[in-house]
Amino acid sequence: MSHLLEVRDLEVKFALRFGDITAIDGVSFTLDRGERLGLVGESGAGKSVTGFSIINLISKPGYISRGNIRFEGNKISTYSDEQMRKIRGDRISMIFQDPMMTLNPVFTVGFQMIETVQAHRKISKAGARKIALEKLKKVHIPSPEQRLEQYPHELSGGMRQRIIIAISLLTDPAIIIADEPTTALDVTIQAEIMDLLQELCKSDNMALILITHDLGVVSQVTEKIAVMYAGKIIEYGSTDQVVKHPVHPYT
């Protein structure tokens, strides 16, 4: 049985005037349905670039120079941008660090959620609104009908991040890539968001890639850990094994 996601010998370079810089060097890992993987390392380790590579969001001068990425048995690392649009935001969703960078401040939450559903599904506005309400309820947002009519600036940081998670769920993705999803939140709200992500993975059999610099967070949320340093995975295994019996000095 094949893995849901398989990354093999991934290398990403950035073409600069004085030569190519290797940002990701031979990264390999797998992810199965319902599994939670933590990509952990310090700033500049290559965690986010790895996440962006999966959904082909590496901007020029960056490019994938070697390796392959397979999703549901298909080699998506060679897909065109048009082919990737059918997967990106649909079968694979991403949650970014700052919800205010994701949400458009001039449109209501409802407008943005309905637009997202209709971009991926042939559905009426009323049908899309119904799905949006269902997802807001799923992420435990109180008074969801009222939230649909509000603008992002009217919501708290924790509420905005829940909105982003709800948007990522609109198309029932197989994988969510969460890139430092709690960095801008206080500690109490961080714990709530992490609990929510765990709950959603279990209830929907959804896979999660959690990108973070916090080993403590991944030890509580994920089943597998990949420790990254200088563009390489230097330690990879079950969360219990890596946390309790680390082999590499960096870990």
CATH topology, anyone?
Rossmann fold
Annotated CATH architecture: 3-Layer(aba) Sandwich
Count all strands and give the number: 10
SSE arrangement, N to C = EEEHEEHEHHHHHEHEHEEH
Poorly predicted runs: none
Helix content: 25-40%
Q: Return the domain count.
A: 1
Percent strand:
25-35%
Describe it.
The structure is a single chain. The protein contains 10 helices and 10 strands. It is an alpha/beta fold and 251 residues long. It has a single domain (33-55, 90-244), classed as P-loop containing nucleotide triphosphate hydrolases (Rossmann fold). The longest helix has 18 residues, at 187-204. The radius of gyration is 18 Å and the shape is globular.
Q: What are the defining features of this structure?
A:
about 250 residues; alpha/beta; Rossmann fold; four-stranded antiparallel sheet; about 30% strand
Question: How are the SSEs placed, and which strands pair?
Answer:
Elements: E1 5-16, E2 19-31, E3 36-40, H1 47-54, E4 62-71, E5 74-75, H2 81-85, E6 92-95, H3 99-102, H4 109-120, H5 125-138, H6 144-148, H7 157-169, E7 175-179, H8 187-204, E8 207-212, H9 215-221, E9 224-229, E10 232-238, H10 239-244
Parallel strand pairs: 3-8, 3-9, 6-7, 7-8
Antiparallel strand pairs: 1-2, 1-4, 4-5, 9-10
Question: Quick gist of this model?
Answer:
The chain is of the alpha/beta class and about 250 residues long.
